[in-house]
């Protein structure tokens, strides 16, 4: 597996300013402690709300943490989650990433862990999927359309299907939020490490038990500079018409 530096020039990419925005949207983990104005954070949430939502249900909610005392209470939870990640999945560099580059990434993760209490803002996207509504005729058509094998598959993958259905309603908005942050000169990165201790995070933030959380997105003004991302070449990831 190889990585390439993505060209950030709009004309070279053949598109509008959105393209260089995406091409320089690194995960920025070293944040200044300076506050981000509420009006700016509202613009990020507005961008998230503009994202598509499955069935147009729009059952998302966003917890935005800016209070230093609340952030300080979350910092130990963040540390436990990051330490658990670095001891397991994060212990080794991904295929195609050299050790030096991975070492720099880990150093940034550790910096964010050690300075989490100074994070200016943290966004927690949430979703409460509504109870499905079925009737006898609809279930009959459903069974006929899928057939016995399809029904068996749906039964076996119900949990995964539900998780993906919820995620598909949330993550397009999260991506919009990340794009908006980059466009406004803010650093942000998406993480799901908090899910290892989701119950404790929800208790700390008063999130209802029947509401799922999907990410923890630290936001602030970057200490460093934005630069081009490194990704796998398009030719290595495209399968045209069949695998």
TrEMBL record:
Domain (Nitroreductase) spans 26-221
Please report the name of this protein according to its UniProt entry.
Nitroreductase family protein
User: Which source organism does the UniProt entry give?
Assistant: Streptomyces flavovirens
Which is an annotated Pfam family here?
Nitroreductase
Query: What domain of life does the native source organism fall in?
Result: Bacteria
Q: Which UniProt keywords apply?
A: Flavoprotein, FMN, Oxidoreductase
For this protein, the record's InterPro entries field holds:
Nitroreductase, Nitroreductase-like, Nitroreductase/BluB
Concerning PANTHER family, the annotation shows: IODOTYROSINE DEIODINASE 1, NADPH NITROREDUCTASE
Q: Does the keyword Oxidoreductase apply?
A: yes
């Amino acid at each position: 597996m190889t990585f390439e530096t993505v060209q950030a020039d709009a004309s070279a990419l053949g598109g509008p300013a959105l393209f260089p925005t995406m091409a320089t949207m690194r995960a920025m983990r070293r944040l200044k402690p300076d506050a981000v104005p509420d009006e700016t954070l509202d613009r990020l949430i507005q961008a998230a709300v503009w994202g598509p939502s499955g069935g147009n249900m729009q059952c998302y909610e966003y917890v935005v943490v800016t209070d230093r005392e609340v952030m300080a209470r979350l910092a130990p939870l963040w540390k436990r989650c990051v330490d658990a990640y670095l001891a397991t999945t994060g212990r080794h560099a991904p295929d195609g990433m050299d050790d030096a580059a991975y070492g720099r990434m880990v150093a940034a993760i550790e910096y964010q862990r050690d300075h989490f209490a100074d994070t200016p803002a943290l966004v927690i996207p949430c979703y409460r999927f509504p109870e499905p509504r079925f009737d006898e005729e609809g279930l009959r058509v459903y069974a006929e359309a899928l057939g016995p094998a399809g029904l068996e598959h749906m039964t076996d993958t119900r949990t995964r299907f539900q998780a993906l259905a919820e995620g598909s309603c949330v993550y397009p908005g999260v991506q919009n939020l990340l794009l908006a942050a980059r466009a406004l000169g803010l650093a942000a990165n998406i993480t799901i490490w908090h899910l290892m201790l989701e119950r404790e995070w929800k208790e700390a933030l008063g999130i209802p038990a029947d509401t799922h959380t999907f990410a923890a997105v630290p936001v602030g003004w970057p200490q460093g500079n934005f630069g081009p991302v490194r990704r796998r070449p398009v030719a290595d990831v495209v399968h045209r018409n069949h695998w």
